[in-house]
UniProtKB/TrEMBL annotation:
Pfam families: Abhydrolase_6. GO terms for molecular function: hydrolase activity. Residues 47-284 form the AB hydrolase-1 domain. The lineage of its organism: Bacteria, Pseudomonadati, Pseudomonadota, Alphaproteobacteria, Sphingomonadales. This is Alpha/beta hydrolase.
Length: 299
């Protein structure tokens, strides 16, 4: 199996993904959901679940690389990106039901489930509530519960987003993202400007996201923790967890708790920051492909 390299064209600064995927929509539980579909003819399928207050196109470089041999589905979770907003809330089980609906609409009976940050919670809910869909879980720096440092960082970032009134132009937005996330590969910052923002009625560029999502980082999000731990203990599919030691979202105590609920968990500590797919995309993709190569063929 060929390894992905640091200079892979999928995460080159000037990478272009136009025409590489099909943008699709379907309605689940009354919510209009947007998603991208890469290499739909492939037998092996992975669904990539993004983190809090981003959207499917944050995965474009990773999806481009993985789709050389896989089919890859990347949804905008409800309330995010180009998907509809919900009056009923943003509970993990609702996100999971939405994703199951997308897979059903595409006729996908089972797949590898990948989640980053908030997407980890969705992945656990999806695999726990619909074990028939889960061939494996690849989780990236998140879980049913976060360490205090990770919670504080999530709350701070949500507050900063709420306080921003918008950007005058893409260059202003890019300058802020370069300052906020110098650790990201440049292509991910460029994609963030292109897909995370939309012009509002006065011409300002504002976030494509429901402001109500902020409650996920506060008390509402914590209400899901016990359910997600319980579902973790029911998951039979193989699970691999990539986690950042420096970032502080997870720590040794939480990793031990993970292992208590998932005795067969394979965890890989990394010395990068929280945004593993955007900082080390080659490592992320290599970890994924090695993990999937060990799994049985789809039924």
């Amino acid at each position: 199996m060929a390894e992905f390299a640091k200079d892979d064209p999928a995460w080159a600064d000037d990478a272009c993904f136009d025409g590489a995927y099909t943008a699709k929509r379907c309605s689940v539980s009354g919510i209009d959901l947007y998603y991208t579909d890469w290499n739909p003819g492939a037998a092996n399928v992975a669904i990539l679940l993004h983190g809090f207050n981003v959207q499917s196109h944050t995965w474009d470089p990773v999806a481009s690389a993985l789709s050389r041999t896989m089919r890859v589905i990347c949804p905008d979770l409800r309330g995010h990106g180009r998907s509809g907003w919900s009056r009923d809330g943003y509970w993990s089980a609702q996100f999971a039901t939405d994703c199951a609906g997308i897979l059903q609409a595409e006729g996908i009976r089972e797949c590898h489930i990948v989640g980053h940050s908030l997407g980890v919670r969705v992945a656990i809910a999806l695999a726990g509530l619909r074990p028939d869909l889960a061939r494996s879980l690849l989780l990236s720096d998140g879980g049913p519960e976060l360490a205090n440092g990770g919670v504080a960082q999530s709350v701070r970032l949500a507050r900063e987003r709420a306080e921003r009134t918008g950007f005058n132009d893409p260059g202003e937005a890019l300058a802020l993202y370069e300052d906020m996330h110098p650790e990201w590969r440049p292509i991910f910052r460029a994609l963030h400007v292109r897909h995370q923002l939309r012009p509002n009625w006065v011409g300002k560029l504002v976030e494509r996201a429901d402001p109500e999502l902020a409650w996920i980082t506060r008390s509402a999000g914590r209400r899901d923790n016990a359910m997600l731990w319980a579902l973790s203990g029911q998951i039979k599919a193989p699970v691999k967890l990539l986690w950042s030691k420096p970032a502080g979202f997870l720590n040794d105590e939480l990793i031990a708790k993970y292992r208590a609920y998932m005795p067969s968990l394979e965890d890989v500590p990394l010395e990068c920051g929280h945004y593993i797919p955007r900082e080390w995309p080659e490592e992320f993709c290599n970890q994924a492909m090695r993990f999937w190569a060990r799994q049985p063929d789809p039924t």
